[in-house]
Amino acid sequence: METITTLSKNTIQSILKNASIYKQNDTRNTLFQNKIFGLLFFEPSTRTSLSFESAIHRFGGKIIRYNSQISSEKKGEDLEDTIKTLDAYVDILIIRHPNKNIISTIKQYTHKPIINAGNGDGEHPTQALLDLFTIMESFPNFPTKIAFTGDIKYSRTIHSLLQLLTLWNPSIFYYFICDTQLEPPDFILNQLQPNSYSIKNTLHEDIIETIDVLYVTRLQKERFINENVSNIIITKDLLKNSKQNLIIMHPLPRNDEIPKEFDTDPRSKYFEQVKNGVYVRMAILYHILQKN
Ligand code: NCD
Asked: Do 112 and 187 reside in the same domain of the chain?
């Protein structure tokens, strides 16, 4: 699972189906009790790393966690030697790294399966699958209009979800609502039909009234230096005339773009995304390891 772009429809379908079974049964077994999973997180993470750990534990797997703060990286070791070392210790590598090209780089040093848990401002394929799973739970026949707000330029979760939705090929209309400096990058826009999206700088009620999914993100301040950008903040008042079945999503972590008062709002699905992350990542591990 290095990128979303090479997944077939069959694979996506089977991952979503298995995730749904794991969720229904809250599955635990010993399927991967003989497997060793390497977790290498070179950027902060709460949900992605811990949901992978939870998914691995549910299959009885063993975890080795690389910690760059207490490793030989501090003595000047380079990534090549680190990856070659991990290659000797684990059966699969799950990696998050600030460098967008990390996956092609480490593939030179290991032939073990790699899961991309976030490569800079590039992709986040496992998040996209759990986001799609969450959308499908509310809209089995697909939503028709989705609004993305926040940092659309740097949000790898938005990039991957858009690629996944395009691959799935439904005719969805997208609104991108963000500061002018955070508009979608060309590599994303080039994959969309010209008439299938609209870019706006403010979120108005007329958009809220027509959309099925509102996907909110924080500003990725660690990826840009300009302090002069503002985020879209949602309010109960702004959302008062939403469709009844609108869902509000967020990959988390949040800053102030979704006030806590939304947490008990039935439209909010961000903690459901958190929960689904475990089951979808179990299905991803199963998909990758059953073949090895
Ligand atoms: C996101 C990420 O790391 O890309 N979080 C996540 O994995 N759920 C979003 C973010 O950091 O803003």
From this structure: no
Predicted confidence at residue 218, as pLDDT, reads 94
In angstroms, how far is the first alpha carbon of the chain from the final one? Answer: 14
The CA angle 175-4-249, to the nearest 5 degrees, is 40
- Please give the residue range of the domain that contains residue 105: 4-124+277-291
Q: Are residues 113 and 129 in the same domain?
A: no
Active site amino acids:
47-48, 75, 96, 124
Task: Please give the angle made by the CA atoms of 273, 45 and 213, to the nearest 5 degrees.
Answer: 25
Q: Is 281 in the pocket of ligand 1 (CB under 6 A)?
A: no
What are the residues whose beta carbons fall under 8 Å from the beta carbon of 204, sequence distance 6 or more? none
In short, whether 156's Cβ falls inside 6 Å of ligand 1 is yes
Mutate to test the pocket of ligand 1, among 1, 4, 48 (most ligand atoms within 8 A of CB): 48
Answer yes or no: is the C-beta of 49 below 6 A from any ligand 1 atom: no
Indicate the top mutation candidate among 4, 124, 250 to test ligand 1's pocket, ranked by most ligand atoms within 8 A of CB: 124
Q: By 3-state DSSP, what share of the chain in percent is helix, strand and coil, each rounded to 5?
A: 40, 15, 45
Q: What domain count does the chain have?
A: 2
Q: Residues 24-67: pLDDT tens digits? A: 999 999 999 999 999 999 988 889 999 999 999 999 999 999 98
Give 166-213 pLDDT, tens digit per residue.
988 778 999 999 999 999 999 999 999 889 999 999 999 999 999 999
Residue 145 sits in the same domain as residue 158: yes
Q: How far is the CA of 252 from the centre of ligand 1 (A)?
A: 6
Structural element, H or E, at residue 187: helix 186-189
Do 18 and 282 meet the contact criterion of CB atoms below 8 Å apart? yes
DSSP conformation letters of 121-142: TS--HHHHHHHHHHHHHH-TT-
